[in-house]
Amino acid sequence: MKLTELLENLEYEVVLGDVNRNVNRLLYDSREVGEADVFVCITGAVRDAHEFVADVAIKGATAIIVEKDIDISNLRDVAVIKVADTRYALACMSAAYFGYPANKLITIGITGTKGKTTTTYMVKSILDKIGVKTGLIGTIETIIDEEHIPSCNTTPESYIVQKTFDKMVKAGCKCVVMEVSSQAMKLHRVAGFIFDYGVFTNISKDHIGPNEHKDFEEYLSCKAALFKQCKHGIFNADEKHIEDILKEVSCEVETFSIEKPSDFKAEDIKLFMKPACLGISYRLTGKVNIPVEIDIPGRFSVYNSLTAIAICNHFTNDYPLIESVLSDIRVKGRVEIIPVSPKYTLMIDYAHNAMSLESLLNCIREYNPKRIVTLFGCGGNRDKNRRFEMGEVSSRLSDLTVVTSDNPRFEEPESIIEDIITGVKKADGKYITIPDRKEAIKYVIENGEEGDIIILAGKGHEDYQEIKGVKYPMDERNIIADVKEMLNM
């Protein structure tokens, strides 16, 4: 390619050299740079790639994209291009590098504090079933045809996003549904194209801290930015911040709700239980009038399914098919029920902060279990307030809290557990501590009582435990299977 082709949608200043040159690869990792490559200097949380300008020039880079002033006195045979924001530049250049693959797909971006993951799977399942081959990018994995790639971030770096779109097009995908995190918007990971559909699920105070968002206003602004970058927006009308989200949108608007008037409204909501299942049903009114039943508990399941229906209504009017797909949906690590004993219900859920745990426990309480037993730990090298808050929530809403280890990282598990217990003691729930998570799981399975609902919280889809910088294999499903075998269950 020509460098000018990569830069065609950017404003830039030529600091050194010229842009009329051929390029080999587009890169943002200095370790991979070779002859005739273009290197984009990204400022990260740990290192600033502008520090490696001299190194990549020696390796043969033909062009270097910067956002800061650099020393060019010793650079030879290299173009130095200055832009306002190299992350934005990387996104636009990546789109050009891969031939603008988003233009060959129907793109659906889902943002919100909760519900993104489950909703993406619902949408993919429905669209695949009606013959619209759909790729998925999200917290758990990226799915391209039969290939499943475990995820590191909810939304990957922009280069990976565009590379993935390109692979999806070549695999015959017609559509992609993806989770769009607030960090992705802040760091321009989905810049360089326009979404066909943007979706807003909800927002609450989360992801606020030194390495994420400075305050709630910034968090909200990043969520809202998606709707300046899409053609059609679908919004949760019940969200209390909906007016703030809508005030600057530049797209068409559709809404869904449980409480307020909307285009897709759930009415006559009912809970139900059956073997190895906690479910919910409702009557959908508005643009579509159908009964809906989902074998996933809680009002959040109603919102997730409303979102999926509102999206898929633009692709099909085969509502019996939509009903059928939704009734069979299961998502790994999201209120995932694992059959263990006819006496009680055991589930795995990713609830890893106070907000998500409180939402889950309030949902489970509505099914009137004999006891709620909640097993969880907290991650090391993270905000300690999360530990106090989760401890208090579990103690207040559970009948028994089993405090154990999660991903201690570089902290001692016992120290994290002590912090959690500080929060547990702020309420009056019973609790025990079992630092070894495998032993803790064995305990709750062995001591489950008739009518209990047992929740293994925090790990969800994760299949590892991170200790001292090493990720050790640990899938709770395998642990449960081993315990069942040990106990002859």
Strand residue content: 15-25%
Number of domains: 3
How would you state the average pLDDT, rounded?
A: 94
Overall spatial form = globular
The computed structural class is alpha/beta
The CATH topology of the largest domain is given as UDP-N-acetylmuramoyl-L-alanine:D-glutamate ligase
CATH class descriptor of the largest domain? Alpha Beta
Strand order of the largest sheet: 9-8-7-10-6-11-12-13-14-15-16
- The CATH architecture of the largest domain is 3-Layer(aba) Sandwich
| Distance between the first and last residues' Cα | 62 Å
- Tell me the CATH superfamily of the largest domain: Mur-like, catalytic domain
Question: Which residue ranges are poorly predicted, with pLDDT under 50 across at least 5 consecutive positions?
Answer: none
**How many E strands?**
24
User: What's the Cα radius of gyration?
Assistant: 24 Å
Helix content: 25-40%
Number of helices: 15
Largest beta sheet, briefly? 11 strands, mixed
Summarize the structure.
31% of the residues lie in helices and 24% in strands. By secondary structure, it is of the alpha/beta class. The chain has 3 domains: 3-97, Udp-n-acetylmuramoylalanyl-d-glutamate--2,6- Diaminopimelate Ligase, Chain: A, domain 1 (3-Layer(aba) Sandwich); 101-327, UDP-N-acetylmuramoyl-L-alanine:D-glutamate ligase; 336-486, Mur ligase, C-terminal domain (Protein-Tyrosine Phosphatase, Chain A, Alpha-Beta Complex), CATH 3.90.190.20.
Describe the protein.
With 489 residues, the protein is of the alpha/beta class. It folds into 3 domains: 3-97, MurE/MurF, N-terminal domain (Udp-n-acetylmuramoylalanyl-d-glutamate--2,6- Diaminopimelate Ligase, Chain: A, domain 1), CATH 3.40.1390.10; 101-327, 3-Layer(aba) Sandwich (UDP-N-acetylmuramoyl-L-alanine:D-glutamate ligase), CATH 3.40.1190; 336-486, Mur ligase, C-terminal domain (Protein-Tyrosine Phosphatase, Chain A). The protein is 31% helix and 24% strand. It has 15 helices and 24 strands. The chain has helices at 3-6, 53-58, 86-97, 116-129, 158-170, 182-186, 216-225, 242-246, 299-312, 319-327, 354-365, 384-397, 413-424, 437-446, 476-486, and strands at 13-16, 26-27, 38-40, 63-66, 79-82, 106-111, 134-137, 141-144, 147-150, 175-179, 195-200, 230-236, 252-257, 264-274, 277-286, 290-294, 336-337, 345-349, 372-376, 400-403, 430-433, 453-457, 464-467, 470-473. The strands form 4 sheets. An 11-stranded mixed beta sheet has the order 9-8-7-10-6-11-12-13-14-15-16, with helices on both faces. A 6-stranded mixed beta sheet has the order 17-18-22-19-20-21, sandwiched between helices. It has a 5-stranded mixed beta sheet with strand order 1-5-4-3-2. Strand 8 and strand 9 form a beta hairpin. Helix 4 packs across helix 9 (299-312), helix 4 (116-129) packs across helix 10 and helix 11 (354-365) packs parallel to helix 12 (384-397). The chain is globular, with a radius of gyration of 24 Å. The N and C termini lie far apart (62 Å). The mean pLDDT is 94.
